[in-house]
Amino acid sequence: MTAAVFFEEFPEQNHLAGLTFSQRPGPNRCLCLLRLAELAAALPESALPAELAALLAAEEQERYAALPRASRRVQWLGGRLVAKQALGHVLRQARGADYPPEGIVVIPGESGEPLVRPWPDDDSVPPLVSISHGGDFALALAACRPPCGVDIQQVVPTLQRVRHRFCTDSELAVLERALPALDECERLGLLWSAKEAGKKALFPQRAGIAFLRLVAVAPDPPGWRLHLAEEEGDAWLHLHGRLLNDHCLAWTGEG
Q1: Rounded Cα gap, residues 145 and 167, in angstroms
Q2: Is 45 helix (H, G, I), strand (E, B) or coil?
Q3: All residues at 6 or more sequence positions from 125 whose CB lies less than 8 Å from its CB, including other chains
Q4: Which of 155, 191, 208, 248 is the most exposed place for a label (fewest CB within 10 A)?
Q5: pLDDT band at 29, cuts 50/70/90?
Q6: CA-CA distance, 255 to 45, in Å (whole number)?
Q7: Which CATH number applies to 3-145?
Q8: What whole-number distance in Å separates Cα of residue 159 and Cα of residue 165?
Q9: CA dihedral sign of residues 204, 209, 210, 214
Q10: Nearest by Cα to 133 from 40, 205, 44
Q11: Number of CB atoms found within 10 A of residue 154's CB
Q12: With contact defined as beta carbons under 8 Å apart, do 48 and 61 qualify?
């Protein structure tokens, strides 16, 4: 994805606490991306800087401080920040009010999936959120209604070594026919991301991703649309797939 295409895909650039958040807004949904190197450069070895701590609720600050490794703290914080940015957009669009980042609390569900904590004295259903981080980026999708799933995967040779865990020979043939300009690692990265995003959207409690099968791949410039079906045929998903440098992105939504 070239710089021009990147800014076409993520047309809004928001700046908060010295960080640049790239957003792809849509009706009742928002995709938000942050470069983790930018966040890591803003984090000292010691305590969380005050301008970043101010974006987190007290319990989120405690969770951050309890993480043992610096790399994991960067990933976790990046995920929470892009989630709060995306959620703030859909809440403002849906409810016509601004919700400060520290007032948007993302908690883990039964299977570790991110959930938005309801607000006191508010019986409305909170929006959905999905979070991913991989390689150089943290990525989140927020949506007012399902499905809501997102994933980012760095293109690495490991994908070829573990292909048997998530890609059948027939699926590989579909990818080869539809994506002749990509190499095998890029094709596998797109499939992995699409299946991970699909699982997060509809099946967070199920193990693995092999139960989702690739049905078709169609052009969706500057990327593709991947069509997945659950192995029992009870659910179908349509996901957007993109290449960003050496990363694969996939997300649900937008029809």
Answers
A1: 29
A2: coil
A3: none
A4: 208
A5: very high
A6: 43
A7: 3.90.470.20
A8: 10
A9: positive
A10: 40
A11: 16
A12: yes
Backbone angles phi, psi at 66, to 5 degrees: -80, -15
Distances (CA, A) of 242 to 44, 62, 111, 164, 251: 33, 35, 27, 23, 9
- What tokens appear for 213 in the block? 């099968």
First to last CA, the chain: 22
Length, in residues, of the chain: 255
pLDDT in tens, 197-246: 999 999 999 999 999 999 999 999 999 999 999 988 778 899 999 999 89
Nearest to 81 by CA among 134, 139, 128: 139
Q: φ and ψ at 137, to 5 degrees?
A: -135, 155
CB 100 within 8 A of CB 111: no
- Per the structure block, which two tokens stand in for 146? 């399902």
Tokens 């859909």 sit on residue: 90
Sign of the Cα pseudo-torsion (19, 2, 192, 203, in order): positive
Q: Where are the domains of the chain?
A: 3-145, 152-252
Cα separation, 6 vs 244, whole angstroms: 8
Residue found by looking up tokens 């995967």 in the block? 153
DSSP string, 191-225: HHHHHHHHHHHH-TTSSSSTTEEEEEEEEETTEEE
How far apart are alpha carbons 244 and 22 in whole angstroms?
13
Cis peptide before 219 (omega within 30 of 0): no
Q: How far apart (Å, rounded) are the C-alpha atoms in residues 40 and 123?
A: 37
Amino acid identity at 238: H
Helix (H) or strand (E) holding 89: helix 70-95
